[in-house]
Every structure is written in structure tokens, then in C-alpha cells.
Write a structure and sequence with these properties.
It is a single chain. By secondary structure, the protein is of the alpha+beta class. The chain folds into two domains: 195 residues, DNA methylase specificity domains (Adenine-n6-DNA-methyltransferase TaqI, Chain A, domain 2), CATH 3.90.220; 150 residues, Adenine-n6-DNA-methyltransferase TaqI, Chain A, domain 2, CATH 3.90.220.20. 35% of the residues lie in helices and 21% in strands. It contains ten helices and 23 strands. It has a four-stranded antiparallel β-sheet with strand order 3-10-7-8. Strands 4-6-9-5 form a four-stranded mixed β-sheet, with no helix packed on it. A four-stranded antiparallel β-sheet has the order 13-20-16-18. Helix 6 runs antiparallel to helix 10 and helix 7 packs across helix 10. It is globular and about 75 Å long.
Length: 397
């Protein structure tokens, strides 16, 4: 791709740079079992389009070599770049090997501006375009390093940076509002359940567990009739369904209609390389025609809508996470069996109080969703700011 600047931009000091001229790739490998570092951050801990890291794990959570990361360095998800996972480390630790650890090469760019630049559509669209592979498209550093981008002069960079700092602070406070609303919903639900519960029951008495569809890479097709939902289709932030990245498979694959997702189903991750994804779930609020759970997922199909809404809350509480950690401790492959779910014990509440719990829980979740909408608006403003200076730039393939 050749990039041509307008005459005005050339006069103002714009320049075309290769990404390798403004960023350095830091590839220091660390074995989790051999390090004294206490923090691990995987791609599952990163929120799309957020430079701040709100979740983290510990090295004992993972196996295999990881990347060393230091405060101020950028963690960029090189695998599935379309998820737009990018953050600035505020810790000393390790991160997923499915990421790149980058730092600014000062001179042509203000170092603080680099992560904001990488959040832009200008950069992300190119990152997605150069990703290689079909199942898990991945970016190679040597390919990324030679990509050319137009870069404004330092003075304009300073102005853009000041605007972004202010917007990013607003995004941070909005994110905090969302986090507190979600946390409050769980605390209130836990207290109400403790107060109103009358007995302890197992899941199999109130719901059927249906394993997802098994398929191979050969079954995938862009025009496939069947749409498959996986763990990444469940937002870790809101525990709601996300249909922005769906696998499609050929209609020649035999699938039972029973596995189609219907209103009030609970979609749950049953197998993952990360214990943080295991047991991740969301309530399906309306029937999704031609949508099915993938092979690593299960459908929890409750006998009625009231119990479905109640169980969806239970699965998001600390008691369920504790259960997950207890049955997967010490295993290399993180799996939940249907039997593990069937035998899970939960506090049962009569319908009248159950509905009250669901209503209060949903009230705080509604506040969180409003906050997320504001956050998305601010992120769109950031993209608009980036687009304005680049309007006169021409790209020629």
C-alpha cells in the first residue's frame, strides 16, 4: 500500500512512517512456573477499546511460555485483532503469548500517543487486514513492522494527545460506574438470596443441559446457514450475548433442532484454556433462529422463564466461580462436564422472592448498560478525532 500526502500536509510537516520506526517489539519469554512475578494478564483480561486493565490473574493460572511485560509497555492482542484488545500495562508481570509487547520508539511520535494511535481505525483496520490464518488469524511482527502510516507533526500530535487524555479519563470514570453497578447487582442479589432461600437444590431438577454442536474447520463456510456461538460471544463485562463475531458452518452438517438457542436458554462455556472463561454464561433474551452453541459450549434450558432468569444470576455470583475453581484445580485442560453442572448445588428461592431478586438485579444491570452506551459514544468521538486529520491522505494499493 502506497500512501500519498496532500501538498498541504507535506508543508505542515506530515510524514509517512513504517510502524517499526515508531514502535519496538519486546519479546522476552518467561515460564510461569519459574517466575517470581505475581501478575498474569491474558487476552481475556483485556476489554475491547480500553487502554486500562481492569482484571488480572496470576502465573499459576496458566502453562507454557508467556511474555515479560513492564509498566508503560503496550499489550496488543495479535491474535484475532478484530477484537481490538490493546492496553497499557500498569504492573510488572507476564502476559499472553497471543499478544505483542510493544513500546514506543521516540523521535517521530510522542510515546504517550502510540497506544491511542493503535486504537484508531487507521491502525486497527490495517492490523486486521494483515492477519494470517482462518480459524485464529494472527499478526506477525515482521509484517506489522513494515506497514506504513501517515503521521501528523509533533505539534498536532500534542493537541491530539491532550484531547485523548481528557476523553480517556471520561471513559475511565464511566467504566468505573459500570463496574460498580455490576458489582452492586451481585452483592444485593447474594444478600437477598441468603435472606429468602429455603433449601439447597441441584440444577438437574430444574433444567436440562444440552451440549453444543461439534464441527471441524472443513465445515466452516462464509455463506453457511448455521451460526455457531462460542465463548468469545459472551461479554465478560456484561455477561450478555455479542453477535459481532459468529462462525458459520455448512447446512450439510447434521444438527438437532434441540440445539438451536431459544428465549431464556443460558449459554455457557464448558471448555477453555483459561479458567476465567470456564463457566462464563449469558441469558438468551430472545430466540435466535439458526444460532447454535458451539462444541465447547452447553445450553442450560430451564423448565420455566422465572427459574432461567434466577439461574443466570446464580451463574454470575462468587459461589459459582468458587465451585468452578474447586472442580478444575490442578487440571491441565479446563473442562466442565454436563454432570458437573447437573450436580451443582444452589440456594433455591420461592418464585415471589425469586422475581424480586431478578428485578433488583436487572435494575442495576440497566444502569450498567446505560453507562456502556455512554462509553461507546466517547469511543466514537475518539475515532472521529483521528479521522479528521487523515481525511486528505490517499491510499493506493
Amino acid at each position: 500500500m502506497a500512501i500519498f500526502l496532500s501538498e498541504k500536509q507535506v508543508q505542515e510537516g506530515w510524514q509517512v512512517v513504517k510502524f517499526g520506526e515508531i514502535a519496538r517489539n519486546i519479546s522476552e519469554r518467561v515460564a510461569p512456573s519459574e517466575t517470581d512475578l505475581e501478575v498474569y494478564v491474558g487476552l481475556e483480561h483485556l476489554d475491547p477499546q480500553s487502554l486500562r486493565i481492569s482484571r488480572r490473574g496470576v502465573p499459576s493460572d496458566v502453562k507454557g511460555q508467556k511474555l515479560r511485560v513492564r509498566p508503560g509497555q503496550i499489550i496488543f492482542g495479535k491474535r484475532r485483532a478484530y477484537q481490538k484488545k490493546l492496553a497499557v500495562a500498569d504492573f510488572d508481570g507476564i502476559c499472553s503469548a497471543h499478544a505483542m509487547v510493544l513500546e514506543a520508539a521516540p523521535g517521530k511520535i510522542i510515546p504517550e500517543l502510540l497506544p491511542f494511535f493503535m486504537q484508531s481505525d487507521v491502525f486497527m483496520d490495517r492490523a486486521v487486514a494483515i492477519s494470517e490464518g482462518s480459524l485464529s488469524p494472527t499478526i506477525k511482527w515482521k509484517t506489522l513492522a513494515i506497514q506504513e502510516f501517515p503521521l501528523p507533526p509533533i505539534e498536532l500530535q500534542k493537541e491530539i494527545l491532550e484531547l485523548f487524555k481528557k476523553i480517556d479519563l471520561c471513559i475511565y470514570y464511566t467504566h468505573q460506574l459500570v463496574s460498580y453497578a455490576l458489582l452492586t447487582s451481585k452483592i444485593v442479589a447474594e444478600n437477598m438470596i441468603a435472606k429468602f432461600s429455603k433449601s439447597v437444590e441441584t440444577i438437574d431438577r430444574y433444567a436440562e443441559i444440552i451440549r453444543g454442536v461439534t464441527y471441524s474447520g472443513e465445515d466452516e463456510a462464509e455463506d453457511g446457514q448455521y451460526k455457531i456461538l462460542r465463548a468469545n460471544n459472551i461479554s465478560l463485562e456484561t455477561m450478555r450475548i455479542d453477535l459481532s463475531d459468529v462462525k458459520k458452518i455448512k447446512n450439510s452438517v447434521k444438527i438437532s433442532d434441540k440445539k438451536c438457542l431459544i428465549q431464556n436458554d443460558i449459554l455457557m462455556c464448558m471448555s477453555s484454556g483459561s479458567v476465567h472463561h470456564l463457566g462464563k454464561s449469558c441469558l438468551i433474551e430472545k430466540t435466535l433462529d439458526s444460532y447454535f452453541a458451539g462444541g465447547f459450549m452447553s445450553i442450560i434450558r430451564a423448565k420455566d422463564s422465572s427459574i432461567a432468569h434466577y439461574l443466570s444470576i446464580i451463574f454470575n455470583l462468587a459461589v459459582f466461580r468458587k465451585y468452578i475453581y474447586g472442580i478444575t484445580a490442578g487440571t491441565n485442560i479446563q473442562n466442565l462436564k454436563n454432570g458437573d453442572m447437573s450436580s451443582f448445588k444452589f440456594k433455591y428461592v420461592d418464585r415471589v422472592f425469586r422475581d424480586k431478586i431478578v428485578n433488583v438485579y436487572n435494575l442495576f444491570n440497566h444502569i450498567a448498560l446505560q453507562g456502556l452506551e455512554k462509553k461507546e459514544q466517547l469511543q466514537r468521538i475518539k475515532q472521529h478525532i483521528w479521522q479528521q486529520p487523515f481525511k486528505e491522505v490517499s491510499n493506493v494499493f
